[in-house]
Design brief:
Radius of gyration: 22 Å
GO molecular function, one term: ligase activity, forming carbon-nitrogen bonds
Protein name: Glutamate--cysteine ligase
Largest sheet: 7 strands, antiparallel
Distance between the termini: 46 Å
Pfam families: GCS2
Number of domains: 1
Length: 504
């Protein structure tokens, strides 16, 4: 798409009547509530799915690489924000032994030929939390901040050509378009800095849609402990750091900078508008969850036409939900009425070193929701503020964070072994409840249990690698790029068939 065509689409979005759009979304939300009450969004069983984001690097250089759009279409992956991004989604499957196997096999079945095909163009797809090596001959600052003005519209040079992405920089909503992290200050004219980060997103479909608030409450309370296990983004591209000692940068690094990047880029820099990326509230009813989406400020209203999907009856509500950026969020959709579902989208987790690591998080999350809700685990009573504090502490310190948990006996604990002992046991029980054998359930739990037992995460592995190099007087940039090269090399051997603990 040419720049003038893209600018024209952005101007079309700018011309949409915001109030009329919001009225239609609110009207559709009322119809959605009625459908939920009537049981349309119920499932006969729990169902799981997964989104997997990747970025591309040069197969030889290891530096960030733009993926030709035709190649992305050829390998069957979807566009994401940056030209270097690719995304795939699994087909929803029942939460049972066969469904989880199908999830893992579908990821491998799509990734294996994609890796083979992209290799012919000297491209390697990487599963990670944040890229650190910019394209050859460019700085990360230039790549993230490069933009042009086309017919009065600001367009990011390295962003995919979806009009909604570019419209975010051309609306009245005061999107921050900046990053402020330890020793990092970046300011851009578009939301392109968000393309630093990649994630996995497990989905859990609720069997009985009106029960969503109960499952959601538990999802918020396991968010901190699961994020602490999954952290994988301790370092930025080196040229983004301010003038500080290498040792200070290493010592002060947060272990999951993906959290601060997403919040800083999309939230207002000042207090003149509510944050859209944030830890969500508890809900007392499914209607309240729907109302929260309706009340969220619309950034990019668009003229959206209903197609032939069942959920196109809620097309404006669904579009509004697209910028309802919560770290855990409720979702209501379905291409047909029998496939209509209410689900929880768990968004805190960064991309993981291997497919099995990603599926382990998916399975453990699903097992936890199954068990905790069925036994009415006492952690339900944990203060929301404590759950939120756990989440942000985990993003900064990973497994070294001071996490609080309410045990099955109703006692508060900060003992990490006790916390994860209960979590993994509950996850195993939940998976066995869904028909998995004990051995199969343990297979999914084991990669994460070993992280907790060894007190090691992908972020800690990266941090230790860079810290050791800096201690040997290796310049920070070389230390980070050396770590990234080692990460990609390890992943090349284990992405489809191993786990992160195989690296240790």
């Amino acid at each position: 798409m040419s720049g003038s065509e893209l600018a024209a689409r952005v101007r079309e979005a700018q011309a949409v009547d915001r109030e009329a759009f919001d009225r239609r979304a609110a009207e559709e939300a009322e119809r959605l509530k009625a459908e939920v009450t009537d049981g349309t969004f119920d499932n006969t069983e729990a169902i799981v799915g997964l989104e997997l984001e990747l970025y591309a690097v040069g197969a030889r250089s290891g530096s960030l690489k733009r993926v030709p759009r035709g190649l992305l279409d050829l390998i069957g992956f979807e566009k994401e924000l940056g030209l270097h991004n690719a995304e795939m989604q699994t087909s929803p499957q029942p939460l049972n032994e066969h469904g989880l196997v199908a999830q893992e096999q579908e990821l491998k079945a799509n990734l294996a030929p994609a890796l083979k095909r992209t290799a012919r163009d000297e491209i390697r797809l990487v599963s990670d939390g944040m890229w650190t090596v910019p394209p050859t001959g460019e700085t990360a600052t230039d790549y993230l901040c490069d933009s042009v003005e086309q017919d009065g519209v600001r367009i990011a040079t390295n962003m995919s050509d979806a009009a909604r992405y570019h419209t975010m920089a051309n609306t009245d909503y005061p999107t921050g378009m900046r990053v402020e992290a330890p020793h990092v200050s970046l300011s851009a004219d578009t939301v392109m800095p968000e393309s630093l980060i990649t994630s996995i997103q497990p989905h859990y479909q609720i069997p009985h849609a009106p029960d969503l608030p109960e499952y959601f409450r538990y999802a918020l309370r396991v968010a901190g402990p699961l994020l602490a296990l999954g952290v994988n983004a301790p370092f930025f591209p080196p040229d983004l750091y301010d003038d500080a000692d290498d040792e200070a940068i290493v010592d002060d690094a947060w272990l999951e900078n993906r959290i601060i990047v997403f919040e800083d880029v999309l939230n207002p820099a000042a207090d003149d508008a509510p944050d859209k990326v944030r830890f969500p509230p508890d809900f007392d009813s499914v209607e309240e969850a729907i109302d929260d989406v309706v009340a969220d400020e619309t950034i990019v209203p668009m003229d959206v036409e209903a197609g032939q999907r069942f959920d196109d009856a809620f097309v404006h509500f669904r579009h509004k939900h697209g910028s309802y950026w919560r770290w855990i969020r409720p979702v209501f959709d379905g291409p047909t009425e029998p496939q209509a579902n209410a689900r929880i989208e768990f968004r805190p987790l960064p991309g993981q070193p291997t497919v099995r690591d990603a599926v382990s998080f998916q399975a453990v999350f699903a097992g936890l929701l199954t068990t905790l809700t069925s036994i009415e685990h006492p952690v339900r009573a944990m203060d929301w503020e404590t759950a939120r504090e756990n989440f942000y502490a985990a993003s900064r310190e990973g497994l070294a964070a001071d996490l609080t948990w309410i045990t099955s006996d109703g006692e508060e604990t900060t003992d990490l072994d006790h916390i994860y002992g209960e979590l993994f046991e509950a996850a195993r029980q939940g998976l066995e409840t869904q028909g998995l054998s004990t051995d199969a359930a343990r297979r999914y739990v084991r990669p994460l249990r070993e992280r907790a037992d060894r007190r090691i995460t992908p972020a800690r592995w990266k941090h230790d690698h860079v810290a050791a190099a800096v201690d040997q007087n290796v310049p920070l940039a070389e230390a980070i790029w050396g770590m990234q090269s080692a990460y990609v090399d390890h992943q090349e051997e284990t992405l489809l068939e191993g786990t992160f603990v195989d690296w240790l």
